[in-house]
Amino acid sequence: MTQQELFNEFLSLPAEAQRQVIDFIAFLRQKYAVVEPASKSLDIDLINDSFIGMWSDRQDLTDSTAWVRGVRENEWSKSQGLPENKLFHHQ
Questions:
Q1: What are the DSSP calls for 14-62, one per residue?
Q2: Cβ contacts of 13 within 8 Å, gap of 6 or more
Q3: Cβ(56)–Cβ(50) under 8 Å?
Q4: How far apart (Å, rounded) are the C-alpha atoms in residues 71 and 77?
Q5: Cα 84 from chain centroid?
Q6: Do residues 1 and 10 touch, judged by C-beta distance below 8 A?
Q7: pLDDT per position as a tens digit, 8-21
Q8: What is the rounded CA–CA span in Å between residue 45 and residue 88?
Q9: Alpha carbon distance 17, 10 (integer Å)
Q10: More confident: 79 or 89
Q11: Which of 11, 48, 72, 87 is deepest in the core (most CB within 10 A)?
Q12: Rg of the chain over all Cα atoms, to the nearest angstrom
């Protein structure tokens, strides 16, 4: 069967049957699709990477939550024009 004959057969079908053929073709294309391999991930040794732990000797970062809170209070009080102790009420 040539492509033209196949197409003519398709056109001779009722609209509902044509939709079923189209759906079936879509199903087959998905089922037999060539899957592209995922990009090769970088082989990184995080334990020995110099970036990890780069701030380990910083004494001001021993409590990162307190450090972030302090930076936020300082920066936000500047933007609000408020004294630092009026911006937040921490206990």
A1: -HHHHHHHHHHHHHHHHHTPPPPPPPPPP---GGG-TTTTTTTT-GGGS
A2: 21
A3: no
A4: 10
A5: 37
A6: no
A7: 999 999 999 999 99
A8: 41
A9: 9
A10: 79
A11: 87
A12: 32
For 29, phi then psi, to 5°, come to -60, -40
C-alpha to C-alpha distance for 90 and 62, rounded to whole angstroms:
19
Asked if 21 and 29 count as a contact pair (C-beta separation under 8 A), the reply is no
- CA pseudo-torsion sign 60, 62, 68, 73: negative
Q: How far apart are CA 40 and CA 44, in angstroms?
A: 12
pLDDT tens, residue by residue, 23-56: 999 999 999 988 777 666 666 777 777 777 777 7
Smallest CA-to-CA distance from 66 within 48, 91, 86, 32 is with 91
All residues at 6 or more sequence positions from 11 whose CB lies less than 8 Å from its CB, including other chains: 18
Using CA atoms, how far residue 5 sits from 2, 9, 17, 28, in Å, is: 5, 6, 17, 21
